[in-house]
Amino acid sequence: MKLLTLNCHSWQEEQQLEKLDILAKTITEREYDVIALQEVSQLADAPQEGGYKKGHFGLELLKRLSALDRTEDQMHWSFCHYGYDVYEEGVALISRLPVTEKDSFFITKSEDPDHWKTRAVPRITVNAGDQLIDFYSCHLGWWSDEEELYTEQVDRLLKRQHPDRLSFYMGDFNNHAGLKEEGYDLLLTKGLKDTYTLAATKDSGTTVFGEIAGWEGNAQPLRIDYIFASESVKVKSSRVIFNGEHYPVVSDHFGVEVELKIKLF
């Protein structure tokens, strides 16, 4: 099984359509089974199209995947809040494996889409052959936020975990693995297993260089995008992608791809 997570920074990138094409071609070439995307946006005043709004970033990605003969992909998107006054921003999951359940829930106290800190999480359950597996696409807040406490966001997230299913929490967790006794360590104390540390082969894991939105003034390489598992799993490899060395840069975040020793069908 191959997984990908990427904060898309959608519709905020220069040469956005070219980068969208790169993303679609890479997904097809790398044969990811489940993909978690964050900052997946659509124009608030756009007309409806196929259950979303015309120009929805995820919908445009699905069109490109279909044109590349990946016609089995399904998307589940959760709307979080309005961004830049014109966008409806959310998080999404795309799966080429059969989806048996879908859910969406808030992990912040706020459920107001006019508040930029409002965050929701989509979940899908997929049929992976001999087992059902849950996947969550996550875009959490910051450790220092006193309004929407990180500890409470994590608690609301993990409260939804099915006790009898393997679960993967994929996304932008906005907490650097190199900072001790903060968000990353909290996630580990809650029982999550970082597939990066479990991987037989891995690289630096860096997913952000320098200053980006939400990390103003940052001057160090950060590992803030992760794929966590609810239990220990066998991981062949964890690799950063879309970093200019392993495929072109397509966002202000790099992606993370993980290959697991989970047999499908």
From TrEMBL:
Endonuclease/exonuclease/phosphatase domain ranges (all copies): 19-253
Pfam families cross-referenced by the UniProt entry: Exo_endo_phos
Chain segments annotated as coiled-coil in the UniProt record: none
Keywords: Endonuclease, Hydrolase, Nuclease
GO molecular function: endonuclease activity
CDD domains recorded: RgfB-like (cd09079)
Gene3D superfamilies (UniProt xref): Endonuclease/exonuclease/phosphatase
SUPFAM superfamilies reported in the protein's UniProt record: DNase I-like (SSF56219)
Keyword Oxidoreductase in record: no
The protein, known as: Endonuclease/exonuclease/phosphatase family protein
Phylogenetic placement of the source organism: Bacteria, Bacillati, Bacillota, Bacilli, Bacillales
